[in-house]
Amino acid sequence: MIHRALAVLLAAVLCAVPTLAQEQRGSIEGVVRDNSGAVLPGATVEARNVAQGAVTTQVSGADGAFRFPALIPGQYEVTVNLQGFATQKQTADVVLGSIKNVSFELGVGGVTENVQVTSEAPVVDVKQSQKSTNISQEQIDRLPKGRDFTSLITAAPGANQEPRSGGISIDGASASENRYIIDGAESTNLRSGTSGKILVTDFVEEVQIKSSGYTPEFGGSTGGVINVTSRTGTNAFRGSLLTYYENANLDGDVRPALRLNPSNTTQSEYITYDRDDVKTLYPGVTVGGPVLRDRMWFFAGYNPTLQESSRTVTFLSTGERNTFDRDFRRQNATGNVTAQPLGNLRLKGAINYSPGRSDGVLPAIDGSGNPLANYDLGQKTPNATYSGSADYVISNNFLIGARGGYYTSDIQDLGVFQGTRFLFLNTNIGLAGVPESLQRSNAFSNVPSNFESTFDVSRRTNAQVDATYFFNAAGSHSVKAGVQVDRIGNEVLNGETGNLVRLSWNRALSGLRGPFGYYQVRSNGVNPRRGFLTQGDISQTNVGFFVQDAWTVANRVTLNFGVRTENERVPSYSADPAIPPVGIEFGYGEKLAPRVGAAWDITGDGRNKLYGSWGVFYDIMKLELPRGSFGGDKWLEYYYTLDTADWTTLNNNPACPPACPGTLIRGPIDFRHPSNDPAENSVDPDLKPFKQQEAVIGFERELGSQMAASVRYVHKQVDRAIEDVGALDATQNEIYTISNPGFGRSATFFPAGSSTALPFPQAVREYDALEFVFTKRYANRWNLFANYTLSRLYGNYSGLSQSD
After folding, report:
1. Smallest Cα–Cα separation from 310: which of 379, 271, 256, 362?
2. What is the pTM of this model?
3. For residue 220, what is the DSSP state?
4. Which helix (H) or strand (E) holds 13?
5. Are 607 and 701 in contact (CB under 8 A)?
6. Which helix (H) or strand (E) holds 184?
7. Closest CA to 199 of 241, 159, 150
């Protein structure tokens, strides 16, 4: 009944507005007083968006307070009018998630008198205990950057490109533990947890990186939350023509590469390869302006990626020298409409579209490929997000919001070779008994690949409905509560179009070999004449709830309390009716995440803030695990003696495998046996969700109207991880136990050949960092953002996905 009621509520909201998710707004609040410090109720306060001209009006309450809780990011002119007092104006720059304090002291004056006070927005946000970095359009235009918004993330303290963590690591987490939101639509890759969407930087209005202390509204992340908004139109028609160009000649000298000698893999050597000729052009256009002046605006942009690559290769098998080409095209486009049809209603809808296509592949630069292979392969990668939001300010103390989004991506390979691929794990050059015509170098392959993705469609629909209520009780309170729905889907059919045969010349396996060594054949068991296979069609819906309160006491201390909970169902890819459709399920009671924080305006003038926070965070499992361990991947391996020098005949028998030439040494070994098969019962029934705690303390000080310095100490620790713990059974099949390392079934283990149990190590990952930041916002033709982080990442656990 609860889920049905929620579905009805969400359907009603999503029929009224497009779909979207996560915060897309900032706020302004303050108090109106007279010169004596007495509060002034009944003052009319207007917030005017300078670029769009939209005006929002509030009236100060009995305590003189006013607030604009749902503003589109941008610069605002705030005006206060009260009969008998002089009019005052201030300006404030609103960014995502910010609370700008703009207070007034009105002097007595005639109704026609106008006293304009222009001030910069506060540098220090004294009411929040979260740590976030906001990069505005103004900064983006001036910063050195790549073509995608992700190149901006590492400007945030504690954010780094870490190859061993699989990508962007924030505060010590692996790359799979972040969340990415573009215009409110979650664009996180369902399988890997990395960014699944391209958005070129010329379309970006703002990038916000939440690093720590974020409120219960944000879940499913133990790293950072990256929130991106695209540029919006204004009351003035504006456009741009732009282009970027890259050329391989700009990359500097070609350096020698170290490789194994192709004809003798016991030796290494340096070699300088020919430089690839790569040319990339990024022509673009943007345009924005009013649809209805002061009411509705649009923005659109198009900036495709046009890349041509060529590679000249000397093939080791024949000495033949050829040049090969690859063309790549990505259609980067964006469009959005924002509207304020009423002073208290704001709407936004956005589309971000970036499908790609490549034609041709380049052979291995070391010449180990086959000159007779077909390199005219292609790939299509459809990719898009659609989003929308609505914020309705019902009264000065009540706000409701709805947002949601749809993300879709696919991978489709074109022209892939249909048949067996032979791959040399080492060379047979000079091996006795092998005719010269059959001798090949190390890493030789008869075809570039026989792996084909027929389709790999990912879909995500996410939605949020929330309400915020402001009231006074021993201070001022801002209570926000909401429900979030996240529906994911993956329909996949990919794999090797024929067997993969890998040859180990003049080598033995467990002391067994043929006259020429041994070889292995990879199959999938569904169709033995084909290799590795991933297949499945899954969908699952998870629901989360949160409630949080920002309680400001005596206008100087803000306490943040909140809790979130969510359910999580990890789907099974197996079509076997004997295997449950859900591989892992966590209920609401298992994922309670309390969070607390405090921010203290030490001097009461908004210039010095001491803050701290503590919280529990749970990760959302990515599809990498269920695809591999819950029936999506199918992989059988057979090992045979290599009794013939003619490797081209090893897969001629239609019954191979298992009836392949030579003597079977081992196999079939099942490397992807479903762990959620009830017959195996390899999912720990006491499995707990991935859990992390963090504690933060920091200090910020304003050094002037445009400068601030801060220091932050953060400690994050993994309390419990989830891993697929691999083990071999009596027949060498690789069976993964899904468990919490060091707990439950994985509390102990038996070493091979021993009957004595030993403690299994718990997953440990601890991150400690001391961070120093200096900010000087853009003024007088310069700005500066500098940070230094001294950190230590310690433990034995890197992460479940993207970091093995």
Report:
1. 362
2. 0.88
3. B
4. helix 2-16
5. yes
6. none
7. 150
